[in-house]
Write a structure and sequence with these properties.
2 copies of one chain form a homodimer. Chain A is mainly alpha-helical. Chain A is built from 6 helices and 2 strands; from the N terminus they run ααββαααα. Chain A has a two-stranded antiparallel sheet with strand order 1-2. In chain A, strand 1 and strand 2 form a beta hairpin. The structure holds a DNA duplex.
DNA sequence: CTGGGGCTTCCCATCGTTGGAAGGTCAAGA
DNA sequence: TCTTGACCTTCCAACGATGGGAAGCCCCAG
């Protein structure tokens, strides 16, 4: 099948498929006589795998590793688990950062009248060391 | 003072200061005879304001508005509060997304032996619709 | 055999930040 | 006064992941 159908079946945009190929996340697709990329059901499966990994927040670099582990039948599950848990830690770190931001901001906003007057604890909070 | 000292005092990188000026987040700095940017204590204060706003996750677009509200003595605190609360909502949305990712991944990882064998529920989870 | 839709490659934009290159300015020391 | 070296200037490019568009080729249906 051509890239358009592979995109429709995998849920990955055709442009993105070409991009993934160019950065080596997926292997280079076979080409038809006219130079069109051709895909198998297996390729579509790989694309859907990549899409789901993106949905879990993995970087393309990590996904590259995940795909190669996935295709390597003699992988050690410990390698996959390590990659996954490292990513969970990154997620938790980001969550903690965003949470701290939200907490601070909610605190400042709570003290702000929010009316027509110019006095604003939010701006004051941003004006001095937090 | 020159940009270097302004950078040291505000905690904002000199390159970043030029960038902020170029995108209009801060007003254009005055220039010395030799074409060097010159900064006042007030400018440093503005830069520190921007830095703290970044630290709370505001986009440069939002910070541009915050800076203009900050400099506008006749602002309405309601405008600031609305901007802040909208941002809190964005933060909460991102947190929820990351949290869902982490939950899914922890769930998959819990089922993975993490030894030398190739069987891996994490890869299997990524292979089929989540 | 022609039209139009799919495909190709290439470049540009986003967002915030950082890096380098090539060159001008300034202040201190010989 | 001249030199040195730190500081400054502008411009160009990159990161990561994605999207948009242009110019041009390929392929199938009518």
């Amino acid at each position: 099948m051509n890239i358009g159908e592979a995109a429709a079946r995998s849920g990955v945009n055709a442009k993105l498929i070409r991009h993934y190929e160019s950065i080596g996340v997926i292997p280079k697709a076979a080409r038809s006589g006219g130079g069109y990329r051709t895909y198998t059901d297996n390729d579509v499966h790989t694309l859907a795998f990549v899409k789901r990994a993106r949905g879990l927040g993995f970087s393309m670099k990590e996904i590259k590793k995940l795909v190669s582990l996935w295709r390597n039948k003699s992988r050690a599950s410990a390698d996959v688990k390590a990659l996954a848990l490292r990513h969970v830690q990154e997620l938790e770190k980001k969550i903690a950062e965003l949470d701290a931001m939200a907490k601070t901001l909610r605190h400042l906003a709570r003290a702000c009248h929010g009316d027509g007057r110019p006095d604003c604890p939010i701006l004051e909070g941003l004006s001095r060391p937090l």
